[in-house]
Amino acid sequence: QRCCICRLRGASVTCRGRHCPRIFHFPCGREQGCVSQFFGEFKSFCWKHRPVQRVRAVQQDRTLCLICQEAVAGRPCYDTLVCPACTSAWFHRRCIQGQALRSTLHHFRCPLCQDMATFQEEMFRLGIKIPDR
């Protein structure tokens, strides 16, 4: 199969969006904004069908990432995630992914409100890999 991003052979990740024909290499997909879920059926989605946050979150002035303290986008998007429990904690995708890898499943929670269940469920759905150990 040819990758829909780089056009080279050997693509094996298929988008699980309804009737979507896109197939891509995992690294190409990450660069293009595709999401792979690391739980359940291990579904992957292209940039057009990836899950999005449905959180109603309002920023106060210029919001910063809670982890790196740099500015985040003005609304939840692929690169900017929000805690679904408190809606006050904003993160860059790369920052919260790093936090998840360091914390592991048994300690990964929202750094602000400390919610674990709702936070982990949403991060899993959005493609954040949370290792068991």
From TrEMBL:
PROSITE patterns listed in its UniProt record: EPHD, ZF_PHD_1, ZF_RING_2
Domain PHD-type: 1-50
Domain RING-type as annotated: residue spans: 65-114
Alphabetical keyword list: Metal-binding, Zinc, Zinc-finger
Coiled-coil residue windows: none
Gene3D superfamilies per record: Zinc/RING finger domain, C3HC4 (zinc finger) (3.30.40.10)
The UniProt record lists the keyword Zinc-finger: yes
GO molecular function: zinc ion binding
GO cellular component: nucleus
PANTHER family in alphabetical order: PHD FINGER PROTEIN, PHD FINGER PROTEIN 7
Protein name: G2/M phase-specific E3 ubiquitin-protein ligase
